[in-house]
Amino acid sequence: MTQHRGKFITFEGIDGAGKSTHIAFVGDYLKARGVDVVSSREPGGTPLGEKLRELVLHEKMHLETEALLMFASRREHIAQVIEPALHRGAWAISDRFTDASFAYQGGGRGMDLAKLEALEHWVHPHLQPDLTLLFDVPLEVARARLDATRSLDKFEQEKADFFASTRNEYLRRATQFAARFRVIDSTQSIADIQVQIAAILDQLLA
Ligand SMILES: Nc1ncnc2c1ncn2[C@@H]1O[C@H](COP(=O)(O)OP(=O)(O)O)[C@@H](O)[C@H]1O
Ligand SMILES: Cc1cn([C@H]2C[C@H](O)[C@@H](COP(=O)(O)OP(=O)(O)O)O2)c(=O)[nH]c1=O
């Protein structure tokens, strides 16, 4: 019998929106329903990708170098983790993917979206997520959550207008690619968000 290709789910949102909080929940929810789940993150997801992550989150660099390193990490991640998982019928769940490059390098930093599209078509011409969960909150809420919890990396230290543009680009893409995006109002309680996510996953499992 031919094995069915697995599903690819990505998690997006500005820093502090609550994305990481829900990834473990999704993994557990799917595993409890018999799904083989492979969970990873970007930038990162492979040993080389994690080295690139260290560089890109902490070193100053040209905007296009930053974008190229994000896509370099992604190329490795797709080849080593995502495609093999989907091919054997597992579901790949990734903490960020290409929408983050459009939102952060494109929206936040102002990189030409056409160049990002060229990189996207080069690196994954035939791969798109089956589902993208966009965790959306006002900037002040995200900032307050970050300030309460952790020391900040290069991106998290950016100013409000950077995150306003990042959030706008995420929301623009959610409209453009409405078939795969689900926007979650992340000002709700964690419990309420999980009920909503469970309903979305049930549709994908059906
Ligand atoms: N819906 C929520 N309500 C209140 N606090 C939340 C909610 N979601 C996440 N948090 C808290 O906000 C902080 C940042 O969440 P996190 O999941 O790490 O964000 P992200 O991965 O999007 O940067 C954590 O301390 C987390 O417990
Ligand atoms: C994947 C990706 C991430 N990023 C940024 C967004 C985040 O600020 C940062 C790391 O993402 P993330 O793993 O969400 O950070 P944390 O674990 O601290 O919550 O990288 C980009 O700018 N472009 C990209 O293509």
From TrEMBL:
EC number: 2.7.4.9
Coiled-coil parts of chain: none
Keyword DNA repair: no
Protein name (record): Thymidylate kinase
UniProt record, GO biological process: dTDP biosynthetic process; dTTP biosynthetic process; dUDP biosynthetic process
Keyword Nucleotide-binding among record annotations: yes
EC class name: transferase
One of the record's GO molecular function terms: dTMP kinase activity
Job description of the protein: Phosphorylation of dTMP to form dTDP in both de novo and salvage pathways of dTTP synthesis.
Binding site for ATP: 13-20
Gene: tmk
